[in-house]
Design a protein that fits this description.
This protein is an alpha+beta fold. The protein contains 29 helices and 28 strands. The strands form 8 sheets. The chain has an 8-stranded mixed β-sheet. Strands 15-16-17-19-18 form a 5-stranded mixed β-sheet, with helices on one face. Strands 26-23-22-28 form a 4-stranded mixed β-sheet.
Length: about 850
């Protein structure tokens, strides 16, 4: 990381004071400015896509991209030349282009764009050449392409991200997944920039103050899997296993990239080897790049060139959970090279073929091929808990469901498609056996490489490999919404597993039941009984003698189902979950307690005590941090006001104990910085934070929440010594936590109205803004949130998801507000609509538990 001079420090202070994040001045404008004069492109429907796919075969795309205007302005200029065949001469269709069209010709004949993001294509010939010249100037708050300016040094970076249908905002294309074709990109960029794209080894030509990058043809790709990224990147490369691996980041994060590069290369090599073996197909391209960019949300699986949010490059040393998250995201995007790129879903109702498989595969590979051997425990502690909640909410849906248009597709990038889908695929591998599962995957890729598929294609490959009829499995697991519930009825030395389904009866399950006896200070598994469930009642032969202290349903976490302890086991589970011997068995117990909490069958006190006890006994570093977060969330969000302080103190005590272990001190002190109230704890944190800038910021945020009026001066001083180019966001986070009306107003303006906070940091600032015990200063903001609802979809799917989910108020609200939020959801675009309903449901559960009407005292 370059040395920080006084000029840079002053620029970063100015960025903090004026709300700048290093983007163009237009980024500072109001939402009204960004929306002025905007038109809403039509969303492609399933019927339109099917008609276009039946009519056309795309031969190739030749796309020239001019980025030179981004050095001093906002414009990206493109010429898209599409060569395609029409199966019905004289027919007509349309091409998607939501950028400003400067000119368009079809077979040399000028065309007239419509006002809905489409260009009509009349009188098609058998073979056609379409040429569209376009410009996109909304590169700070629009879809598809984004310009970011690093506040550290003023350098410009540009990235593109197109899922589900945002390539059309940059150049003309047939923006649907089943019209795959090779793409050839030629990019002109400032001379100092590096350009990355899907195919490797471009020919680079110098043109005065610019360079032209001509990339070879890609294999057949859907438009949403293509990418161009550019900027004065710091680049590191390694040869590994016949692949040329590259990682990129902005120059101000060079030191952090250097720190993490070997780990990234190691994980990439491990994933490439594992997936090549499991899928019977090596990754076919030599070059594989991963580009970390500013102001991005998440990561995107562009073929051969994955784009990441650069907040994954942790400014302080990563914790075990952060390291595991990096590994899983890396492996998730790598798995997409097969599930999504080489074989692509035909339409968005089969999004799970991409996302659920990638999420399953990243845990499978992490556990089997990397050092992250507790990956499934981490999946249970984080993703599965979210999925159990979402699958019992008002917008629960089948993993596979009809999607009528692409706007509707945005609603299924959720916890049901991702962690539930991954869990269901793990259940499928258990159901058919891993050998048959691998054989089926190998056949699937051999049969469909570079094509598109549907659910039936996959089921046929797996059925053939397993020799099992999977129709009932498919109907129950992929085409039915909701979560099964499993309960055990004890009957002497045997038992009956009772299964309830959400609709037509329980799904088929392959699962295990563990029997645990007390041995000294803990529980020991004395029997593990595996069984398949095909109906409402399944008899089990269990050794339920006097030693059977606890029966654990879904032991080893092999299926996706909520469980309920028998009447005699409830109190034992709550009191003895921490005595279970493995991270997975403890995780299954925590998942049961979580479900008791969210369904109103356990109090926050019961759940909080159980989770903090598990923390004290946990042996897996990967789940310590998720459980600390869960325990603190239970205290903050679920506990009645009279019990909140006691539960918070319980979490703080657990953090103090964990901090005695040097290997867990970093995570424990982070947890203590969230929960500390005692002056001794604050002093202890101050002592430990001496050389830990991250902990200093966390402590300042906690002091702000507790009403410390000195935090502004302390934050200004800390900003001077923090090398992070985005440290101004931490200053805003401190301001957000203050129980002060003026501070809340300032932060709301910059966070919710100006959208001056990068997408990846919205959650951090919003969490500090909405704090318990601050209802008086937060009172105006529930209504202000409702006022935002008509504009929450601004910027496309990812911003809509982030701002709707993170700004939704958990405090200073009542049931009348939740009713108003549900009413506001009705006319909202699909993504906003569903998230409003989901958040209203979750917060209503919190209010019930806070009222003390849940569970047993």
């Amino acid at each position: 990381m370059p040395e920080r001079g006084e000029q840079r420090t002053d620029e970063r202070k100015q960025g903090t004071e004026e709300g700048a994040q290093g983007t163009d001045a237009g980024k500072q404008g109001t939402e009204e400015d960004a929306r002025a004069g905007a038109t809403t492109p039509r969303s492609l429907t399933r019927i339109e896509a099917e008609r276009r796919s039946a009519l056309l075969a795309v031969e190739r795309y030749d796309v020239t991209v001019d980025l030179t205007g981004l050095s001093a302005g906002p414009e990206v200029r493109c010429v898209s030349t599409v060569t395609f065949e029409c199966r019905e001469a004289g027919a007509e269709t349309f091409v998607d282009c939501a950028a400003q069209v400067l000119s368009a010709t079809l077979n040399g004949v000028p065309l007239t764009p419509s006002e809905d993001g489409r260009i009509p294509l009349p009188s098609l010939a058998g073979r056609n050449v379409l040429r569209v010249e376009s410009v996109q100037a909304n590169t700070t708050a629009g879809e598809g392409v984004h310009k970011a300016v690093d506040p550290a040094d003023g350098e410009v970076y540009v990235w593109m991200s197109f899922e589900p249908d945002e390539a059309r905002f940059v150049w003309a294309c047939f923006d649907q997944p089943d019209l795959k074709a090779p793409h050839a990109f030629t990019v002109t960029a400032p001379e100092a920039w590096t350009v990355t794209s899907n195919s490797g080894d471009p020919h680079v030509e110098t043109l005065g103050a610019a360079r032209r990058w001509a990339f070879p043809d890609t294999p057949p790709l859907s438009p949403y899997n293509t990418v161009v990224n550019a900027g004065p990147f710091h680049e590191i490369r390694r040869e590994s296993g016949g692949h040329d691996l590259g990682v990129f980041a902005r120059r101000s994060l060079a030191a952090v990239l250097e720190r993490d590069a070997e780990e990234i290369f190691t994980l990439t090599r491990q994933g490439l080897d594992f997936f090549a073996e499991m899928f019977g197909m090596p990754f076919p391209q030599r070059k594989y790049d991963q580009v970390f960019v500013p102001e991005y949300g998440g990561a995107m699986e562009n073929y051969g060139c994955v784009t990441w949010a650069d907040d994954f490059l942790r400014r302080s040393a990563p914790t075990p959970a952060e390291g595991e998250l990096l590994a899983k995201v890396l492996l998730h995007e790598l798995a997409h090279m097969w599930f999504g790129n080489i074989v692509t879903m035909r339409w968005w109702d089969d999004l799970w073929l991409n996302e659920a498989f990638a999420e399953f595969a990243c845990n499978w590979a992490a556990e089997r091929a990397t050092s992250h051997t507790d990956a499934w425990a981490g999946h249970l502690a984080v993703g599965k808990l979210r999925a159990y909640l979402a699958d019992q909410g008002p917008t629960s849906h089948p993993i596979r469901q009809p999607i009528e248009n692409v706007a509707e597709a945005g609603t299924i990038f959720d916890a049901i498609t991702y962690p539930k889908g991954a869990s269901v695929l793990r259940q499928l591998m258990t159901y058919v056996g891993e050998a048959a599962f691998v054989a089926g995957m190998t056949a699937y890729f051999a049969r469909h490489a570079w094509g598109t598929t549907t659910l039936q294609d996959l089921i046929e490959a797996l059925s053939e490999a397993a020799g099992r009829d999977l129709d009932a499995w498919r109907t129950g697991w992929l085409e039915t919404a909701g979560t099964d519930r499993l309960t055990l009825e004890r009957a002497g030395d045997a038992g009956v597993l009772v299964a309830e389904g959400p609709a037509t009866g329980p799904r088929p399950h392959a699962l295990a039941v563990g029997v645990y006896a007390r041995r000294g200070d803990g529980l020991e598994r004395t029997a593990l009984v595996t069984t398949e469930v095909h109906g409402a009642r399944t008899p089990l032969e269990l050794p339920l003698g006097d030693e059977a202290h606890l029966i654990l349903l879904n032991d080893d976490d092999l299926t996706f189902a909520t469980t309920r302890p028998g009447h005699q086991d409830r109190e034992t589970l709550l009191a003895a979950a921490h005595e279970l011997p493995t991270a997975i068995s403890r995780g299954v117990a925590v998942a049961t307690v979580w479900d008791l909490l969210i369904t109103g069958e356990a109090t926050a006190a019961e759940a909080g005590r159980c989770v903090t006890a598990v923390l004290a006994a946990e042996t897996s570093d990967a789940v310590i941090e998720p459980y600390l977060t869960l325990a603190a969330d239970i205290a903050d969000l679920w506990a009645p006001e009279a019990q909140r302080a006691g539960l918070t103190a319980l979490v703080a005590a657990a953090c103090r104990d964990l901090a005695q272990d040097p290997g867990r001190r970093q995570v424990a002190l982070r947890g203590l910085a969230r929960t500390a109230t005692d002056p001794d704890d604050l002093a202890r944190l101050q002592q430990y934070a001496e050389d830990d800038v991250d902990l200093h910021w966390r402590l300042l945020t906690r002091r702000a929440e507790l009403g410390d009026t000195t935090v502004d001066a302390r934050a200004a001083a800390l900003l001077d010594r923090d090398p992070d180019p985005d440290a101004w966001i931490r200053t805003l986070t401190v301001r957000a936590a203050l129980p002060d009306a003026a501070a809340k107003a300032e932060v709301w303006q910059r966070l919710a109205l100006d959208r001056a906070v990068p997408i990846a940091a919205v959650s951090q600032v919003a969490t500090a803004f909405w704090r318990p015990g601050q209802d008086a200063v937060l009172a105006p903001y529930p209504q202000r949130f409702l006022d935002l609802v008509p504009h929450l979809s601004l910027g496309g799917m990812t911003p809509a998801m982030v701002f709707t989910g993170r700004l939704f108020p958990p405090y200073a609200i009542d049931t009348a507000f939740l009713t108003a939020a549900r009413t506001a959801a009705e006319p909202a675009p699909p993504v906003v609509h569903n998230l409003l309903l989901d958040r209203a449901d979750v917060v209503s559960r919190m209010l019930r538990t806070r009222a003390g009407t849940a569970g047993r005292a």
